[in-house]
Design a protein that fits this description.
This protein is an alpha/beta fold. The chain has helices spanning about 30-35, 50-65, 85-95, 110-120, 135-140, 180-195, 200-215, 215-235, 255-260, 270-290, 295-305, 320-330, 360-370, and strands at about 5-10, 15-20, 40-45, 70-75, 105-110, 130-135, 145-150, 155-160, 165-170, 335, 340-345, 350-355. Bound molecules: nicotinamide-adenine-dinucleotide (NAD) and zinc ion (ZN).
Length: about 375
């Protein structure tokens, strides 16, 4: 893929770091890593699918830069983000005779990034790590911001740490091998940035979204850069989600998590697909509450449908079944004193944290939603 590499910065003082976005970054990773390395040793963690195509150029570039390396290859999929795999991963890393100056390199989607980041946070009480995200979701969301986690029996992402990478290399070339369904799911998170805080970006996506998903180099770079810039700004303001700023990134996610839980966190509904439908539901609920206009909700629904992402509960067999979804929402971290916190839109490009949503209103809304 052609195009130029752009550089952004996550401003977090001495934990700040660069995000590079553009083509050719895996093949040149060695030169980007070298200045950050206290010891010229890297442990690359990837999964079997990503490893097949993207490991070799990375290894070659580390060789060229004179960086010693080991590779650890995990099975693909969400099932890898558990304690058993985590235990094996840290044992395998420790078997490489690491020191604090060793660099862990996460090459893959959000699964590899999350487990590898958590390993980096805990190994020797913290070793350096670099994210090389290879899914659109990981490039626009999970690789930036320092949330790392694995899943526990009690639920998703319950064991983790805030731990920032030293560098993020979002290589647009890697997206060429990503299945279209995964690409579209990641695209939903891109739309989220427009909907919560940048109406102009949504307007642009509404016109150019298809080009982004067809991997037109200029369009995909602009989508990733705009998303990363927004995430970087939000993280710089509210690194640990103690205020309302970072919480805005949960837009579409409270509905989305309930949908994922109800459909079994698997292939039936990918995370980004659940977020897409969750965003449509958040707009429709806001219209019903008199917070947002129907025109905006219709625009969002049309865009998401045009991008072949889900917009209807009925397609999942969940129309007219509010109880199942409400039960999952009741377990959400964001429930307090019987009131649920939702991120709701006032209009496209302007979302806020609503702490006063009532269960009765939600039940009535979900009972009627098609
Ligand atoms: N830390 C955060 O802030 C954060 C934010 C959002 C999501 N997440 C986590 O991210 C995970 C989901 O990430 P994901 O959607 O990237 O899933 P993933 O890592 O499972 O990747 C999806 C699939 O695509 C394959 N793949 C990855 N890159 C590829 C490429 N370039 N070519 C071909 N195949 C490729 C993978 O092997 C996998 O089968 C979840 O566990 C979620 O909890 C974390
Ligand atoms: Zn998400």
């Amino acid at each position: 893929m052609s195009g130029t590499v752009e550089q952004l910065r996550v401003e977090l003082g001495n934990r700040g770091y660069d995000i590079l976005v553009g083509p050719g970054l895996v093949a040149t990773a060695g030169t980007h890593l070298l200045p950050l390395m206290r010891r010229k040793q890297a442990i690359i963690v990837t999964d079997e699918i990503v490893g097949r195509t993207h490991l070799r150029p990375l290894v070659e570039s580390l060789d060229m830069a004179g960086i010693a390396h080991h590779e650890i290859i995990l099975p693909p999929g969400e099932g890898t983000k558990d304690l058993a795999h985590f235990g094996r991963l840290v044992d395998d890393v420790l078997a490489c005779n690491i020191e604090r100056g060793t660099m862990l390199v996460a090459l893959g989607g959000g699964v590899v990034g999350d487990i590898c980041g958590f390993a980096a946070a805990t190994l020797l009480r913290g070793i350096d790590f670099v994210q090389i995200p290879t899914t659109l979701l990981a490039q626009v969301d999970s690789s930036v911001g320092g949330k790392t986690a694995i899943n526990a029996t009690a639920g998703k992402n319950l064991l983790g740490a805030f731990y920032q990478p030293r560098l993020v290399l979002a290589d647009s070339d890697t997206l060429a091998t990503l299945p279209r369904r995964e690409l579209l799911a990641g695209y939903a998170e891109t739309v989220k940035y427009g909907l919560i805080a940048d109406a102009g970006f949504f307007d642009w996506l509404d016109v150019e979204g298809r080009k982004v998903c067809d991997l037109d180099p200029t369009s995909v770079n602009r989508a990733v850069i705009t998303s990363c810039r927004m995430k970087a700004e939000i993280v710089a303001q509210d690194e640990r989600e103690t205020g309302d700023t970072r919480a805005l990134l949960n837009f579409g996610h409270t509905f989305g998590h309930a949908l994922e839980a109800e459909t079994g966190f698997g292939d039936a509904l990918l995370h980004g697909e659940a977020v897409a439908l969750g965003m449509v539901l958040a707009f429709d609920f806001a219209v019903r509450q008199g917070i947002c206009t129907g025109q905006d909700a219709t625009r969002v629904r049309r865009h998401i449908a045009r991008m072949a992402l889900p917009t209807e509960l009925g397609a999942l067999g969940l129309a007219g079944k509010p109880e199942a979804l409400l039960a999952h929402m009741g377990k959400d971290k964001k429930v307090r004193d019987g009131r649920i916190t939702l991120i709701l839109p006032r209009r496209i490009g302007d979302a806020y944290v609503a702490r006063d949503a009532s269960w009765a209103d939600l039940r009535a809304f979900l009972a009627d939603a098609a």
